[in-house]
UniProtKB/TrEMBL annotation:
GO MF term set: 2-isopropylmalate synthase activity; acetyl-CoA C-acetyltransferase activity; manganese ion binding
Pfam families associated with the record: HCS_D2, HMGL-like, LeuA_dimer
Keyword Repressor on entry: no
SMART domains listed in its UniProt record: LeuA_dimer
EC number(s) on file: 2.3.3.13
Annotated organism of origin: Brochothrix thermosphacta
Annotated protein name in UniProt: 2-isopropylmalate synthase
NCBIfam families, per database record: leuA_bact, PRK00915.1-3, PRK00915.1-5
Length: 512
């Protein structure tokens, strides 16, 4: 079996999804889950982009011990230096530098000749090499680059010391036949192809990123760049879960394996979906809500006779549990912490009391507490940030014939309670009008989404709110509660809190 390395870029390319931005706490939490999932390398961010990005990459490099951490850098000395400063604390740091090679990028974006591009690659790969051995070079827009020039660019990078060559289909333009042929061509034309790691990085503009990545593997790639749930720039990137499970289920064909712990996929997907605010479509392969649901009579009949008639992947394989153990308000600490451990949360003794009392509150309003509820409760628990404003109380007066009235009390990050009231055409609008007043800043609600965590009348609501400030920056908040108005208020308040933290931070950075 050939080993395929998984390079996860959820925290970098994934964060380039329109409307998505992660704060430090969220990134660290996702990085820890990615480590548990078994990714070989994680790209934690683009350190030169902002002090916040730098801090995220540095903290993740410090925290993660079982995956390499890398940072992105343009072919610019300051970028590479900054990337190194961020990753150097890690156990096996890497630097990922890139430069576009296609004619359209050379002419219109870079205004560089072929010779200048080659000189820059040579110089910057060598420059990065003085800091770390694992230097990765990506010829951006490789699939629209003249093949002969692509070989020269890659050869230049290898000769300058690059240990990994990543071939990006930056605009999602290629197809599996072409991309496979491109790897086959590179394999014959590039000297030392076998001595470096060849990797693919595909975007999903034409819906072919997973198929393209698999074609790359069939033609010599030994590393795949991907993101959880396929989030990323425009139509997104190759979905990690699809690659990992395709290689596993079809190992007869691909003769390849990864280090991914498959039963961590569902949990990782849920976490990224919750933190990014990007819902997973029900029909999404591997982790979609319907991926293991059999609807038609013929299918159900076959499935009951023998599941493999219609099921090539068992839900358990990817961590979609069909647990028979349902917790409720009579469940004790032992049952709770055993179940949490089974679904991947090992709780430190110091944290157990707080988590148990949260569970009791939940079990008071929800008869049966499922694994999904527990996961939501845990992400809510980890989301409790002392810097965030907290919802203290909410009072809504609903009258179908008139405007709605909401009264809200918020405990601010300094511990002071502030209270206000406002009306609105609907209950949520009234609540949001009060929060606007109390927060004292004009923002636009650019997205609002509500979903239930489980089926049933007593289901908890999960609300996502995306706000954009007048300076164009966007902030995402999530609120989970058995009551939709409470969940809505929490989501909006969390988005505002992130805004306040970000502006406070940038003010102190300016002052410093
Ligand atoms: O899509 C792309 O080309 C990239 C590179 C930076 C690898 O994300
Ligand atoms: Zn990309």
């Amino acid at each position: 079996m050939k080993k395929i390395q998984i390079f996860d870029t959820t925290l970098r390319d994934g964060e380039q999804t329109a409307g998505v931005s992660f704060n430090l706490q969220e990134k660290v939490q996702m990085a820890q889950q990615l480590e548990k999932l078994g990714v070989d390398v994680m790209e934690a961010g683009f350190p030169i982009a902002s002090p916040g990005d730098f801090e995220c990459v540095r903290t993740i490099a410090q925290t993660v011990k079982n995956s390499s951490v890398t940072g992105l850098a343009r072919c610019v000395e300051a970028d590479i230096q900054r990337a190194y400063d961020a990753v150097k604390v890690g156990v096996s740091p890497q630097i990922h530098t890139f430069l576009a090679t296609s004619p359209i990028h050379r002419e219109f974006k870079l205004k560089m000749s072929q010779a200048e591009v080659l000189a820059s690659i040579e110089h910057h790969v060598r420059y990065a090499k003085q800091f770390v051995d694992m230097v990765q070079f990506s010829p951006e827009d490789a699939t629209r680059t003249e093949p002969e020039f692509l070989v020269r660019a890659i050869q230049t990078a290898i000769n300058a010391g690059a240990r990994v060559i990543n071939v990006p289909d930056t605009v999602g333009f290629t197809n599996p036949k072409e991309f496979g042929e491109l790897f086959a061509y590179l394999r014959t034309e590039v000297q030392g192809f076998e001595d470096v790691i060849f990797s693919s990085h595909c975007h999903d503009d034409l819906g072919m990123s997973v198929a393209n990545s698999l074609a790359a593997i069939e033609n010599g790639a030994s590393r795949i760049e991907c993101t959880i749930n396929g989030i990323g720039e425009r139509a997104g990137n190759t979905a990690l879960e699809e690659i990992a499970v395709a290689l596993h289920i079809r190992k007869d064909h691909y003769q390849a394996e990864t280090n991914i712990v498959l039963n961590q996929l569902k949990q990782t997907s849920d976490l990224v979906s919750r933190m990014s605010g990007m819902a997973v479509p029900r029909n999404k392969a591997i982790i979609g809500g319907n991926a293991y649901a059999h609807q038609s009579g013929i299918h159900q009949d076959g499935f009951l006779k023998n599941p493999s008639t219609y099921e090539i992947i068992t839900p358990e394989l990817v961590g979609v549990s069909k647990s028979s153990l349902v917790l409720g308000k009579l469940s004790g600490r032992h049952a709770l912490f055993t179940r949490l451990e089974e679904i991947g949360f090992l709780i430190e003794p110091a944290e157990q009391s707080a988590i148990f009392s949260r569970f009791k509150q939940l079990a008071d309003v929800k008869k049966e507490v499922s694994d999904e509820d527990l996961r939501a409760m845990m992400s809510g628990h980890l989301y409790q940030d002392e810097d965030f404003c907290q919802l203290k109380s909410l009072d809504v007066h609903y009258n179908s014939a008139t405007q709605q009235l909401a009264e809200v009390t918020i405990t601010t990050e300094t511990g002071v309670d502030i209270k206000g009231s406002a009306t609105g055409a609907g209950s949520i609008e009234a609540v949001y009008n009060v929060i606007d007043q109390l927060m004292g800043e004009e923002v636009t609600l650019t997205d609002y989404r509500i979903q239930s965590i489980t089926p049933g009348m007593d289901a908890q609501a999960e609300v996502h709110a995306l706000i954009s400030a007048t300076d164009g920056s966007t902030y995402h908040g999530v609120g989970i509660d058995h009551d939709v108005l409470n969940a809505s208020a929490r989501a909006y308040l969390q988005a505002f809190s992130k805004r306040r933290i970000a502006t406070k931070k940038s003010k102190s950075e300016v002052e410093a």
